[in-house]
Structure formats: C-alpha cells, structure tokens
Amino acid sequence: MPWFDFSQNQSGKALLETILRVPYFQKARHEPVSGSRSLYELTASNSAVQRTDMSEIDKAATKEHGMHEFLQQTVGDNMIRSVRSVTPETTVGSLYKLFAADDFEAYPVVRGDTLVGMVSKLDALKPFAFAEHHFVPHYKDGMATTVDDVMSTNVVTVETGTSLQRTLELMIKYRVKSLPVIDERRNLLGIIAREEIMRAMERAVLLTYPPVVPFAAA
Prior knowledge:
By secondary structure, the protein is mainly alpha-helical. The protein has helices at 10-20, 23-30, 39-71, 75-78, 92-102, 121-124, 139-144, 147-150, 164-174, 194-208; strands spanning 106-111, 114-120, 178-182, 188-193. The model has no long low-confidence stretch (mean pLDDT 77).
C-alpha cells in the first residue's frame, strides 16, 4: 500500500486533526503506551548513549596519554645541570656555610669531574658524635674535619636515559631526596631531585585533568 501523507491534503488534514482529538491519541502523543517508546525518544536516547560512550572514550584516551607522557620522561629531560659540588678536601666548617647559604640536603663530592661520593647534613655532624664514655670532641677539630672523612662513597646514581619512574623507585627504595646524574665515566652531569619528578607528574596530571579555569585567568 502506498504511503499517504495526510498533511498534504485538506481533507486528510481535517481527518488527522479529528483523530488526534480522540482521548487515547491525545494521551499517546504525550505518554507512549507502556513497553513502547516513541521514535523521537529512541533517537534521543541513542544519541545520548553515543555521546556518553564517546565522552568516556575521550576521557580514557586523555588519561592514557597523560600517563604515557610521564612514563616517557627521562632524567635528561628534567635534571638540574648547574650543580654545586664539593671536593674531598673541603672542611666541615666550609660545608656548614654552604648548607646555610643553599639550604641543600646534600652535595656531590667530585675529584676533578668524577663523582666520588655524596655528603649530607647528617654526614657533617659525624665529627661531633661520640659515645657516652668518650671525650667530647673539640669544636675546632670537628670543623677542620674534611669531607673525605665523613662522606658516603656507596652512592646510588642515575644516567640521563634513566626513566623518571625508575628514578622514583630508587628514591623510595633508598630513602633519598636527590640522585646524582653521571655518564659512563662517572663524570657528574647534574642532579635530579624529588621536586623535578613532582613537576613532571604535575604536568601529566594537568594533561589528564585540565583545570576548568586556566591558570592565567585564575
């Protein structure tokens, strides 16, 4: 049977209006019969589902991209290249002055360009540690002690190609706040600290969950 369009015929329009004034059809126009859904509702519902699915896919892709961004970061991309270091001949007294000026927790110890150890604030206190029945060390003698006598020589290091993820694992495992960066000859190239890893993670987080209001406008 050919499709007849009531709306294109005057008599058809009148018939259609009469039909739609019947209570059943009045109700059906606004409340579809239980168990059925209008074409408009089905179309709208399907569109909403598609929009929801695409939204979830976009979110998952963005999160994956953000994490991928962090996992691809290396020490060479984030390390501090201009690093203050000390020599084995540096005295504890000079070391105290450096700690006071820079507020660092530790310094790399180099001989020439080669890393030979690390010296921390705790290491700098070693000359003044004594057992209960020992003589109290003389202050001047303690301050004259050299870094070579107190530094740690078993140093955990990383290279420029080391991933930030691996660097973070080492920091947590050995409970250190920074790691020296060396080359294949153990020459000191720089240092990577927790702050640099945190900044890299922050960039990944902002890529995954961008702020509603840009920082420049906040």
